[in-house]
Amino acid sequence: MPRKDPGEPLLASNKKAFHNYTVLDRFEAGIRLSGTEVKSCRARAIQLQDGYVYIKNRRAILANVHIAQYEFGNIFNHPAKQERALLLHKREILKLAQWLDTKGGTVIPLRFYLKNGLVKVEIAYCQGKTHADQREDLKKRESDREIRRALRK
Q: Is the pTM of this model over 0.90?
């Protein structure tokens, strides 16, 4: 019996991002990881909540993402919270740098996933939501839920 294709297995997601930010544009990026970091990612030991991306020397850097140390690692195990380089095309990096300089938004990681055996990161350019925007979203979600309940009955 053939194995089912898992597609793109999700390793971690930033669920609070959609509550706190309005997502304007998304990018897929590779990430430079060491061997034990890849094993920790596959074990889903990633926390993205406080992560962000900044541009330094024409390179995209992922900061404040916690990838736990590999449980079976040795003295060459990686530090849990370190800056990691993102692998993007030059034009994508320039576009992100331009947005960060002019529009006052932020770039955050949305999710880590596997694609063809490689760890990928989906990053997004976002604008922060105000408390009023967040309340409106909650009201809209609640009203949609009530409408769906009424239609089922």
A: no
